[in-house]
Design a protein that fits this description.
By secondary structure, this protein is mainly beta. It has a single domain, classed as Sandwich (Jelly Rolls), CATH 2.60.120.10. About 0% of the residues lie in helices and about 55% in strands.
Length: about 120
C-alpha cells in the first residue's frame, strides 16, 4: 500500500475533448477517480445500471443534468447520483473543473449512453 494522488495515480487516462482522469482506487466494488474538465466541455448523457456515484467538486463549477433536472454544484459541494438515473456533467465556466468521482460498484462495463433524440 502507498499513497496515491493526481501526481502519482494508479493510472492516467484522457476522455472526451481534452479531459483528464486519474484512477486513485480501481476495485470491482469501488472506484475513486480525480477528473479535470476544461472550460466548455461536457460528457454524453448516460446511466449506470448498477453503480451509484458521488461527485465532489474540488475546483470550479459543475453543471449536472440528472434526468430532467439541471443542478449547479460549486467547489466544496458534492452530489449523489443513484444507479439508473440518466445524467451528465458539464463545465460551462471559464476555468478548469476538477472533481473526485466515487462509484460503487465500479462503472467498468456499466456505462450506457442515451441515444440523442
Amino acid at each position: 500500500m502507498k499513497p496515491v494522488s493526481k501526481g502519482q495515480p494508479l493510472n492516467h487516462y484522457t476522455w472526451g475533448t481534452a479531459c483528464d482522469g486519474w484512477n486513485l482506487v480501481e476495485e470491482a466494488f469501488l472506484s475513486v477517480k480525480q477528473e479535470r474538465m476544461p472550460p466548455g466541455t461536457s460528457e454524453a448523457l448516460h446511466y449506470h445500471q448498477y453503480a451509484q456515484q458521488f461527485f465532489f467538486i474540488l475546483k470550479g463549477t459543475a453543471s449536472f443534468e440528472i434526468e430532467t433536472e439541471s443542478i449547479i454544484v460549486e467547489a466544496q459541494e458534492g452530489i449523489h447520483i443513484p444507479a439508473g438515473k440518466k445524467h451528465r456533467i458539464s463545465n460551462p465556466a471559464g476555468e478548469d473543473l476538477e472533481f473526485i468521482l466515487s462509484s460503487q460498484p465500479s462503472t467498468k462495463d456499466d456505462r450506457h449512453t442515451v441515444p440523442v433524440a
